[in-house]
Amino acid sequence: MRVSLDWLAEFIDLPPADTLVERLTLSGFDDVEIHTSGPDLSALRVGRVIERAQHPNADRLSVCRVDIASGDPIEVVCGAPNVAADQKIAFAPVGTRLPDGTLLKRAKIRGVASSGMICSARELGLGDDHEGILVLDGDLEVGVPLSEVIAAGGRELEVTITPNRGDEASLIGLAREVRALFGGELRTPEAEPAEAGPAADETVRIEIEAPDDCHRYVARVVRGVRVEPSPEWVVAKLAASGVRAINNVVDVTNLVLLEFGQPLHAFDLAKLRGGVVKVRRAEMGEKLSTLDGETRELTAEDLVIADEQRPIALAGVIGGANTEVGDSTTDVLIESAHFHPTRIRLAARRHGLSTEASYRFERCVDRDGIERAANRAARLLAELAGGVVALGAVTAEGSPADATEEIRFPTPRANKLLGTSLTSEQMSELLERVGVQSRETSADELLCSIPSYRNDLHIHQDLTEEVARIYGYDRIPTTDPAGVLRGGRVPQGWRVADGARDALVAAGLVECQTLPFISPSWLDSLGLEADSPLRNGLRLANPIRDDEPLLRTTLLPSLLRLVHQNRSRQVDRVDVFELGRLFRQSTGGGTWGEGLPLERQGLAAVLTGREEPGLWEAPPAPLFFRAKGIAKKLLSQLSYVAWFPGDGVPPYLRPGAAAVIEVAGVAIGALGELHPDVARNFELDVGCAVIELDLAELLSLPQQEGRYREVSRQPSVRRDLAVVIDVEQAAEEVLEAVRKAAGRDLISAELFDRYAGQGVPEGRVSLAFRLVFQRSDRTLKDEEVTKSIDRVVRMLAHRFNGELR
Amino acid sequence: MPVGVDNLERLESDALREVAEATGLQALIEVRARYLGKKGSVAQVLRGIGTLSSEERARVGQEANATKQRIESVVAERRAGLERQARDRTLESERLDITLPGVEEPRLGSLHPITRVFRDMVDFFSSMGFAIEEGPEVETEYHNFEALNLPAEHPARDEHDTFYVEGGNVLRTHTSNVQIRTMTGRTPPFRFIAPGRVYRHDSSPRHSPMFHQIEGFLVDEDVTFADLKGVLHAFGRHLMGGEIDLRFRANDFPFTEPSAEMDYACLLCERQGCAVCSQTGWIEWGGCGMIHPRVLENCGIDSDRYQGFAFGMGVDRTAILRFGLPHIRLLFDGDLQVLGQI
Lengths: 805, 342
Known about the structure:
The structure holds 2 protein chains of 2 kinds. By secondary structure, chain A is α+β, with helices and mostly antiparallel strands. In chain A, 25% of the residues lie in helices and 27% in strands. Chain A has a 7-stranded mixed sheet. In chain A, strands 3, 4, 5, 6, 9 and 10 form a 6-stranded antiparallel sheet that branches. The model of chain A has no long low-confidence stretch (mean pLDDT 93). Chain B has 11 helices and 9 strands. In chain B, a hairpin with a 4-residue loop joins β6 and β7. Chain B is an alpha+beta fold. A 7-stranded mixed sheet of chain B has the order 1-4-5-9-8-7-6, with helices on both faces. A two-stranded antiparallel ribbon of chain B has the order 2-3. The model of chain B has no long low-confidence stretch (mean pLDDT 90). The radius of gyration of chain B is 43 Å and the shape is rod-shaped. The chains are: A alpha+beta, B alpha+beta. At the A-B interface, α6, α9, α11, α12 and β28 of A face α5, β1, β2, β5 and α8 of B.
């Protein structure tokens, strides 16, 4: 809402601007600003023409020397016929941005250098006069900023009104708020018109056929108007509020809308058929051409104003072209009505049209102000358009509006809610300031009468807010809450997510967040099967980008795109991860209940590693093993024991370099190198490995925390063993067999080297194991260990065709 | 060689000189062998004392042993000195260029700024006894709007710029849905926070369609607006690391009554007005108020007996101010050149 401050001052005396802005801000308005309308003239200076000379190469141009009281006189070329020596003029130095946006530069005009400009009124944005330069008052001091000597427009107050306070969307509403904060006397414009001629109800009758949608309808008839442009003061007031002047009749309805917040509409009475105004629901498929040039198809949900034959307005939203007031109009019907807010809101939404009228009806108008607004408009029409106001208003009533007229206000409850100790008298006074009259019915209760324009006050807590607002939130004490102390529980899912983040950061990965919107084509790029569950995404009805309408079912595409972007920004190492919700349609109940989708916390990481090892760095391990190590460490930090079998890996991973992540026999994710086709689809120029984990699933699985085992003080015996086996043989299986064969004195066995090449036959590989034996009750004898090793060697030969190396 | 104490004296002084002149360990070993070895000078003296009288023999023998010991101790001293010199030379020659980078194995990654700010916030509220609750991001209109006193026809819904999911449901526009899910079917007292992700259909350059909020609510029999101010002041001090200036502005939210917006005084310009606070001196922090009785009733809670406060604030703004990011979109661009700095 934007209004001229001078206009507001006609309604109530205003405090200084700073105070006004601050108090309005604290009392419930958002984005309160007072600004000066009109062009910014602060860079221009008052100048004096010292001398005017004829331009050597152009008859119509002159060369002037101008004094602006800084430095040497400035030489400019001027095209205006009226420029003369000794004039005070508006001077724009080089570097000034003129109100029309042009930046003034040094120029050479017909061979003469010109460093600035002597401006016309139009160039200053002050009017249309461009016949010559603007000549200023001769007494002005040279060199002062032009903005200090020319009032280029008035000051405007701009506020954002919260949705509950439709009553503030008017000058009277703002003035009432100013009165609540600062006191003072409200001055309301005269509304009573002088009436003459035949009574209005002889010309027209009103029929409300949809009484629940229209609580009250008031019409006034003004005859013999002359439609013409409004006087300057009307145009200026409207312009300050961003309303374009059209003609005096329409302008009057807009002016009164701004004054009282009551939307009005003017119909050309001559075009009204059958002498009747009906308020009814539209018929399905009925059409109405509206004032914005659209033809709208109506439904039975739309409320229309109609005459005997056809709709003439979409009630509360916009008028119809068929009864539009134009130059030939002489008799006018002014509508002032009280429509049901929801009906208007739905219509405005359905037709995609928010107007000054619908905005106010949606927020509910002053039910007692309907007639006054009609009268005020009639009076102004008589005044500005020379009309004669017909005798009496024509009114009709629908069902009464839901209205809260009285509220019982338990004052101790207000104090209990706020933490204050205000007396009933104080509260009563504070309420009085917002127009709520009250009387004490008992020591603990005020009976409050709610003004007809305050449609937001229904329960005693609403009045508590009014008390607090006017009293000042800053004056309410600041205290610490009391109560029973209970531990602040952190859910397991939160802990696991945080643990996973810490593990990945420790492994060198950077946490990212991406938007959860994806394109179906990205799923194609992953090479998913047609029946993949990852294709069961949810679709947004109104996505930000039409080609990314799905909610993600996997984190991977967004992360791969992120890798691509970083690579194209020449980032060497892209090791990233993300945690986020994944969404899938659910056939049964959703994660969070009936009618909702599956929504699970997922984790994904992508590793590219560095291409070349840096200082002190060993050559990087193959990406698969980096990913596997990270996944294992992550899970073991979270107290889960993980296995990595090779069967059933997703199609976007490289066959033979991928594994499923399994905890307690349940697949909870996958890891591996990205399939080369997928890498190509995402335009990745480096090898990538990915890790995917279903964190939600993980939560349901058993954790295995470490437990104490007795520590042996007896000496241990270490034996290393290298065996050559077939290269296809899975090392993990061999290691397991070694563990079993070594017997119960074995306390650890690890694979510490793998070698193929010179000395090892083609198709074979050498695995080196380190076995450690120890007993807790005594020192092991050498023969005992040797016996165990022999057993292992025999087993290797027999089962794996292994030869000692 | 004539045997006598005089000889021993000369022998000793020669030995001491040679020890002092020995420039390396090897030379020292040779000097020692020459004087103290089995065939060394002292041994020869001792071997020759057989010819002396028993009285003389005892005197020279004693003196020879003393001489031997003195030379031995000087040799030991010299040896220690030479060894120290040798070690110092080695250390000097093996000096490192300590300006070379240390090994960060593996190089540390980094948490997302939002994660870091959330942790900070959760720390505070956990210590105050608030428990964490979560809720769905795809939510029913009932939980996101209606139960919060925001029916379909309410004009305040316009401000929510909602994403609609085909076939029903919305992307939650705030974390307040968690209030409904947490309170329904339970009995106060409640002391909860709900950190999470929310969505608004806003693609203007200074906004992001995805952002983060933290919701908090406390319901009991006597919780007041004054308590709300107290908790938020304490939270503000924790978050900004010192005294802060908060202000509460009246506002309208359908789910609270009374309602307030809160601002904190801009820490950069100290309320003088700067680009960060859009010249106002204040930075918007969030909304808060006393939970609307209808919301409590919607959750099956007796609003005559219980009352409480709720607040919700954006997290992203706090994060970008804390890390000096110029705008929110950098949080979700995934540019490692940006995130890697933090």
